[in-house]
Amino acid sequence: MARVARLRSRKLFAQVLRRGRALGSRHLVLFWLAEDSEPLQVGFAVQRAVGSAVRRNRVRRRLRALAEATRESLPARGYMVWLGKHTALDAPWEELLATARRLVGRVRALSEAAESAADQPGEEKGR
After folding, report:
1. Exposure of 92 in the CB half-sphere (CA atoms within 13 A)
2. Residue by residue, what is the 3-state secondary structure of the chain?
3. CATH code at 27?
4. What's the domain count of the chain?
5. Cα–Cα separations (whole angstroms), residue 37 to 72, 79, 112, 114
6. Is 124 part of a structural domain of the chain?
7. Which residue has the higher pLDDT, 122 or 77?
8. Which residues constitute the domain of residue 97?
């Protein structure tokens, strides 16, 4: 199975955080920016408030594992950034996975709604 494509461009990363739709929970926030031109690219970030580099890297590894576990449910196109909060370090894996699945489901619904709205022709006004 192929891995999730990584978002590595600093410019795109900042654009997703600035212009993307944010869906949050107690442990993590998903930022999603719909773009039709690219297959899905995923980036990972951790708040500095989480603590030392070791603690931040542990959270980042958990985020990558969550993205891989929910890969089949992710939208096909666009950009996504997973932001880990300090509570993600000590949260039970099952709770994190349930949260990630719920947030990814919401992103998927938004993605499908955006695609269906783009597929429908506009109505003429004033006639």
Report:
1. 3
2. CCCCCECCCHHHHHHHHHHCEEEECCCEEEEEECCCCCECEEEEEECHHHCCHHHHHHHHHHHHHHHHHCHHHCCCECEEEEEECHHHCCCCHHHHHHHHHHHHHHHHHHHHHHHHHHHCCCCCCCC
3. 3.30.230.10
4. 1
5. 20, 10, 16, 14
6. no
7. 77
8. 10-111
The pLDDT of residue 79 is 92
Q: Residue 72 is encoded by which pair of tokens?
A: 């089949």
Supply 8's token pair: 């590595």
Determine, yes or no, domain membership for 5: no
Higher pLDDT, 97 or 125: 97
Half-sphere exposure of 35 (CA within 13 A, CB side): 17
User: Which among 15, 11, 27 has a CA at the least distance from the CA of 82?
Assistant: 27
Q: Is residue 48 situated within a structural domain?
A: yes
C-alpha distance across the termini of the chain, in Å: 53
Identify whether 90 is part of a domain.
yes
- Amino acid identity, position 55: R
User: pTM (2 decimals)?
Assistant: 0.83
